[in-house]
Design goal:
globular, 2 domains, three-stranded antiparallel beta sheet, seven-stranded mixed barrel
Length: 346
Amino acid sequence: MCRRNLTRFLIAFLLLQASFQGYSQSQPLFDTDDVLALEITYSFKDFFKSRKQREKIPATIFEVSSQGDSIRNEIKISMRGKSRAKICRYPPIRLHFKNKATTGVFVNQNKLKLVTHCKDAYSFENYVKKEYLIYKLYNLISDVSVRARMCKITYKDADKKRKSYSSFGIILEDIDMVAERNNLKSYKRDLRSQDVTKKGSLDKLVLFQYMIGNLDWEIGKQHNIKLLRGANNGLPVAVPYDFDYAGFVDASYAVPPKTMDVTDVKIRVFRGFCRIDYYAKTIDYYLKNKSMFYNKIQKANYLSDKERSKIKEYINDFYATLENKNKRMERIGKACRAKHKHVYQK
């Protein structure tokens, strides 16, 4: 009888422990696509003084409900980004929560990236919305991807010396949470090349970057890429982020990398390594899922009809390449970066 009771106790304990673990991993912030209303109050003066040193400054963030109620969190913020920190009137922000937030939509969050609208012009809000759509498109391809939440944010000066302003922004899932959600861990070391990553996910990634016309990434040096791998220390998975230089977004400030012989970010350049099958399996995946991508674009009602039409025209050109054998071979199959097969063929 004692042994039976002990067994029951152990089972109950393990179930309870599992429920706590599940709770600790939950992220209500990314459970919905509804636009999240926020207010962030901080010293504008202190924030811009920290442009070089990136010091954390105190801030208060309010999650505002549709009924007008709010949940308050005392946090710290810091400026982040490289090029956008230099050129933007409203540079990107990192949100730092004390330990992990315990209330509201930010429960279990520790640190988050906030993509801001950069400048006042209406076009800059559109850049944010189009970058958000890119994150949602890549979520369709892989669970090992950064999730995003669209926000309407009111920024208030704690010193009350500057006017408040409101704009759309994106909150991005922290890469450590992406890893935890997929039972992976961060891999910090640089790689000798992109080919020392999992082949299936890599090939989908490089063709996705080609689809959106993004040249601003490098797997080996983890530029706009994070690497994650499992506990068995197998090949890492590359996770892309930061898409504002993509031709899909077509930001006015975006320029191609100096190493690329192109003058316009809307010009696609395939950056994958060569494959024996000329990416046939991956191309077939994109062809079979064509309607999935177009449906996601069509349902992006946060963008105007005109903007969605422009995006679809850009994606049409991508599919015109895939659907034409000669174009496909010229622009992808034979435009690859090195003529060798992947270190692992599986």
